[in-house]
Write a structure and sequence with these properties.
By secondary structure, the protein is of the alpha/beta class. The protein contains 15 helices and 16 strands. The longest helix is centred in the N-terminal third of the chain and has 17 residues.
Length: 410
């Protein structure tokens, strides 16, 4: 079948997060502004605030043997993908026509921690033979393909915190190009380890609280009192299908994935482009891909992580991209910054705009610090019927990704 003109729709979504597992539970928590922040204790570092996933049921779903052959990041991805496929219903396609693209930043941190501990304390012959395959950043993508038996194109995207959105963009093009008729795409991350907490802490990227600070108040995107991000774990996976096939099988269509854009700042190792020019270029590419003008965007799900530099840069980006008057929020105050999973989880949150005619809120935003007059959706979800939305993701190394979703009209 010729690829030209192939449109891509979203027929299912799966999410595993600190505020809920399954799309309906997740949407309810987001709409209610319910935070998943909690104090965690990890050997080797002081107690910290994070957004952990409670009660992950990987063994119940996949059996003890298969679950033990996955690091936690792969378990999160596999559960989210299974939920997404259940949400979408049977695509009715050969396994060779369904592919996988999953973003991931840090790989299997729990396995890596255990391997280093065994190596240093007990010697090289005590390192597990599974240490390498379980720690690779492609493991979540491979795990999803394995547990669901999907034999189409399979890719892992490792563009730091832009990886989840980049994976969705890659999947979009796989279907448009005719290399697949359906793709499971998004991101997964399980970064809560001593190494990652210590490393990001030394960078000065983590929120700074004290014993009197409420855990749920530490992550405050766009707020003047923000001091850094709060790390989270989780996974968000979308089922993308070629539109005509989805309609023939009578699938419920959540939205159309109309555009994707990417760019690179090619600048600082960790800091974003302070002018916003690089990310604005990615947004412009996504809008052009969708055939839309900036005025068509009725909501922006911002990457804003609650860091002083990053949130200010993104506010400038939105104005530069012509989106200064669009309603905007970052949901990271609810589920944390999930790094390589951020784009996938936040894509699921963004779909609320079509599924429920509500815009996801950003919590803890009491004193906006952008000085640019953005229309913040603060504290509570806002009722609105919009036809097009945009989701941003940016990562260390200057990676920028933007996705445009539109309301599907039969």
């Amino acid at each position: 079948m010729p690829a030209m003109g192939r449109r891509v729709v979203i027929t299912g979504a799966g999410v595993v997060s600190s505020v809920g597992t399954g799309v309906e539970a997740f949407w309810d928590a987001v709409a209610e502004g319910r935070s998943g922040a909690a104090s965690v204790e990890i050997e080797g570092v002081p107690p910290a605030v994070a957004f952990p996933v409670p009660d992950l049921d990987a063994e119940e779903r996949f059996g003890r043997r298969d679950a033990r052959r996955m690091d936690r990041d792969t378990q999160l991805a596999a559960v989210a993908a299974t939920l997404a496929l259940e949400h979408a219903g049977d695509p009715g396609l050969p396994a060779e026509r369904i592919g996988v693209a999953v973003g991931n930043a840090h790989g299997g941190m729990a396995t890596m921690d255990a391997a280093y501990r065994a190596l240093l304390e007990r010697g090289p012959d005590r390192v597990s033979p599974f240490s390498v395959p379980l720690t690779l950043p492609n493991a979540p993508a491979a795990g999803v393909a394995r547990v669901l038996g999907l034999r189409g194109p399979s890719s892992a995207v490792c563009t730091a915190c832009a990886a989840g959105s980049d994976a969705i963009g890659l999947a979009l093009h796989a279907i448009r190009d005719g290399r697949a008729d359906a793709m499971l795409a998004g991101g997964a991350e399980a970064p809560l380890s001593a190494f990652t907490l210590a490393g990001y802490g030394q960078l000065g990227a983590l929120a700074k609280g004290d014993g009197d600070t409420d855990a749920a108040m530490l992550s405050r995107p766009f707020d003047r009192r923000r001091s850094g991000f709060v790390m989270g774990e989780g996974a968000g996976i979308l089922v993308l299908e070629e539109r005509d096939h989805a309609l023939r099988r009578g699938a419920r269509v959540l939205a159309e994935l109309a555009g994707f854009g990417a760019s690179c700042d090619a600048g600082h190792l960790t800091d974003p482009d302070p002018t916003g020019e690089g990310p604005a270029t990615a947004i412009a590419h996504a809008l052009a891909d969708a055939g839309l003008e900036p005025a068509a965007i009725g909501y922006v799900n911002a990457h804003a992580t609650s860091t002083p530099v990053g949130d200010t840069a993104e506010a400038r980006t939105l104005v530069r991209a012509g989106l200064g008057s669009a309603p905007v929020s970052s949901t990271k105050g609810l589920h944390g910054h999930c790094l390589g999973a951020a784009g996938g989880i936040e894509a699921v949150a963004t779909l609320m705009a079509f599924a429920q005619d509500r815009l996801p809120p950003g919590i803890n935003l009491d004193d906006p610090d952008d000085d640019l007059g953005l229309d913040h959706v603060a504290h509570t979800a806002r009722a609105a019927r919009v036809d097009a939305v945009l989701s941003n993701s940016f990562g260390f190394g200057g990676h920028n990704a933007a996705l445009v979703f539109t309301r599907h009209r039969p």
